[in-house]
Every structure is written in C-alpha cells, then in structure tokens.
Prior knowledge:
- It contains ten helices and 20 strands.
- With 441 residues, the protein is an alpha+beta fold.
- The protein has two domains: 8-75 and 111-192 and 305-400, FAD/NAD(P)-binding domain (3-Layer(bba) Sandwich); 198-302, Alpha-Beta Plaits (2-Layer Sandwich), CATH 3.30.70.2450.
- Strands 1, 2, 8, 9, 10, 18 and 19 form a seven-stranded mixed β-sheet that branches. Strands 6-5-13-14-15-12-16 form a seven-stranded mixed β-sheet.
- The longest helix has 29 residues, at 337-365.
- The model has no long low-confidence stretch (mean pLDDT 90).
- The structure holds flavin-adenine dinucleotide.
- Belongs to the paxM FAD-dependent monooxygenase family.
Amino acid sequence: xxxxxxxxxxxxxxxxxxxxxxxxxxxxxxxxxxxxxxxxxxxxxxxxxxxxxxxxxxxxxxxxxxxxxxxxxxxxxxxxxxxxxxxxxxxxxxxxxxxxxxxxxxxxxxxxxxxxxxxxxxxxxxxxxxxxxxxxxxxxxxxxxxxxxxxxxxxxxxxxxxxxxxxxxxxxxxxxxxxxxxxxxxxxxxxxxxxxxxxxxxxxxxxxxxxxxxxxxxxxxxxxxxxxxxxxxxxxxxxxxxxxxxxxxxxxxxxxxxxxxxxxxxxxxxxxxxxxxxxxxxxxxxxxxxxxxxxxxxxxxxxxxxxxxxxxxxxxxxxxxxxxxxxxxxxxxxxxxxxxxxxxxxxxxxxxxxxxxxxxxxxxxxxxxxxxxxxxxxxxxxxxxxxxxxxxxxxxxxxxxxxxxxxxxxxxxxxxxxxxxxxxxxxxxxxxxxxxxxxxx
Length: 441
Ligand SMILES: Cc1cc2nc3c(=O)[nH]c(=O)nc-3n(C[C@H](O)[C@H](O)[C@H](O)COP(=O)(O)OP(=O)(O)OC[C@H]3O[C@@H](n4cnc5c(N)ncnc54)[C@H](O)[C@@H]3O)c2cc1C
C-alpha cells in the first residue's frame, strides 16, 4: 500500500528519532494536528544510546504515565555508575540513588535506543498517528508570504506546514536551509570533521559463559586508562516469543580508539581491545571476558557542536524549530543526547501550544499577535541546557581519555575524593539525571 502524505498540516515533524517522536507524543497529548515523516524505510536498529536518565523518563511520564514504567521493565536499573582504572581499582562509584527524594527513577536505565523508539511509536499509534516512512525532505521554500513552509519530498510529494520541526539529526538539512550555524562551542568554528574528533566503536555482543565476575551485570562500568575508555553496559535480551526479557550475557560495549576502526568491527578486532585494556587484562584475579557473538557493531566520530539559535522565523510567521541532535551534539559520555532530545521535543510541543493559543486570543480580541517571545524563550532555555550538558560531557570525556598526561588522573582523583562526600555525589547524580533542566513554570 502506498503511504500518501496529506498536502498540508499544521506541524510537520521531520525525523522520527527519539526527539521527533517525543514531540509527536506531546503534540498528540495537546490535540495539535501534525504529520511525522522519516527518510528511513522503517525504524532503525543500530547500536547507539543505551543510557536513559530520569529527566527523560519523568518527561515522558507527563504524557503517558505507563510509558516510563514499560521502559523500566524492559531495561536494567543501573543504580550506580562505576569507574575503575586499568588495575581494576575503584576510582569512583556514582550513586544515582542519591536523587531518590526527587524522582522514582533514581537510577540510569540501561535500554537500547531502538527499544525506546519502538515503545514511543506504539504509544503514538495508540493515539491514531504513525510515522510516514520513506519520506525524505529534499527541498524547502517559504510560501504564502512566509506564513507557510512548503516541503518537497524525494517521493515527489509536497506538503505545506506552518511549523516545521527539524528533528532530522546532526546533519540536519533543515538547519542548513534555515542558515543556522552549528559550531564547536569552544573553538567557535563550524562543526565538521577534524583532527580532534573523538573516535569510538560501539558493539552489541554476547559474552561466553561463565561471565567473569568483574564484569557487572547489574550496572554500567567504565574502565579508564591509556589507550582509551572501555565501557560495559549490560542489556536485557529481547525474546521473540514475547516472554519477559532475560538478563543474560548481552552487553553493549563502547571503546575509545585512537586508530581508524573498520566500519563494522568484528569479534577479532573487539576481542583484541578487550585483551589489551578491558576487564581482566591487567589483573591476575579474573580472566578477560570472551566474545561469543557480535550482534551489531559500528564506529563513530564526533565532536561537540551547538547551534546559535533553535528557531528560524519566516517573515509571515512560519517557523523551523530545532530539537535534538539537529541542535546539539557531543560524545556519548554520561548518556545525555537522547535524553536531551526527548526533553527538547516535549518542551517544543508546549511552546507551539502556547504560541497557537496566543495567536488565537489575539485574533479573537482583534489585537496584534506578538508571541514571538514564546518561541524565543524555547530557544534560549533549550540552548542553555545544551551548553551546560556539553560542558559536563566534555569534562567527562577528558577524564575518560586518560591517555594524555597527568591532568585526567588528577581530575579522577579529585572526583574520587569528592564522591566520598554524599552531598557532592548527590550533586553529580542530579546533573547526570538532567532533572534540574526542566522548564520552570
Ligand atoms: C554511539 C552512540 C552512543 C550514544 N549513547 C547515548 C546514550 O547512552 N544516552 C543518550 O541519551 N544518548 C546517546 N547517544 C546520542 C543519541 O543517540 C542521539 O542524541 C539521538 O539519537 C538523537 O535523536 P534525534 O531524534 O535528535 O536524532 P536521530 O536519532 O539522528 O534521528 C534523526 C532522524 O531524522 C531522519 N532524517 C534525517 N534527514 C531527513 C530528511 N531530510 N528527511 C526526512 N527524515 C530525515 C533520520 O532518518 C533519522 O531517523 C549516543 C549516540 C551515539 C552515536
């Protein structure tokens, strides 16, 4: 069956990753008509995010209280985030339980991104909306004196919308169209491939049994030292027969690398890294875990980037509005990108709602419509959140890439010292959770 797009809508969300889906759920909750499209043929299945924080769970819970509960039951509650050195000495253990007074999600949830997206799509479908797949936006123009955008798709279809949500990821076509700069927040240079990019591989593997006890199955562990970070994140397996997910030897591995890895690293490449600098590699107490099977693997390069504004207004009042990776990107440390994107999407739906209401009231009372500040406030708030998160992620990344000099070791030691103090541990857990970034109402 051909999936035809309508010729017009009020809001068109371009991109059905976590940010676009969150915006869609939040618009549906406010009964605002929208269309959501994606260039892919179906939802992606690649290994990316695995850490979900309390802020995103809380934000999704405001839309559908059952949704975070279902996500939690499909994942592993990492109540601590542990960092060890090459000799497997504990450097620090961040206790996410310190935020229990503020949230029932006092942990980092280990769940693969594609499962989060899958659940969000299910909820969207429950509300009668679904993603239009295989719809790549290839051109945009202002029409009706700038009060609408006309989107042209690869399929030849055309759709007009007053609000276009740019949820189209870090290489955003819409951001480029809007002329919004995406710059490294430290060098202020345009983001693009460079020498200082962080290079890492991500792989979903099954470890052979028995799993050595120095690879925890109930939480994330990060091992740092010269050569780069080795992260082991346990996941629950999916059971095709529909039985509850099982906690087995399924792990997502993140390795920092200094060479150029193959596009899909194989078991031999991954095992060589584990043998050289993974758990057990420098300890006589435990063997190195053995990879029995690689389910998926990829390589990534990234560097931080942030837009100068999240909002582009056409002269007639049509908007291009950025959410998620189209507005910010950074390394995977601390598991923040998907979380921030989900919160962006939900906050944007609220801004669109307020803006529409204000326009409606102005029309009814015959007064001029002047609600530009609603969208500007969205832009200012979310940009400031992203700037803070990028700073935090960059400090964590410098700590993880402990190869260069003594600086990172001093930082880790300082962190170890302060993490002994419950208050400081609580502050760090609070920062990772993202709970402090919710919009003040
Ligand atoms: C290796 C790795 C590990 C990570 N780990 C974590 C983690 O643990 N926790 C965390 O919170 N974050 C993590 N992240 C970040 C997280 O994956 C991203 O922040 C998240 O995917 C961003 O979601 P998004 O919806 O903004 O963009 P995306 O997920 O990139 O989705 C964009 C969508 O737009 C579509 N699209 C693009 N162009 C067009 C077009 N022209 N027309 C139509 N559709 C288009 C694409 O097909 C895509 O589906 C990680 C990232 C990587 C790479």
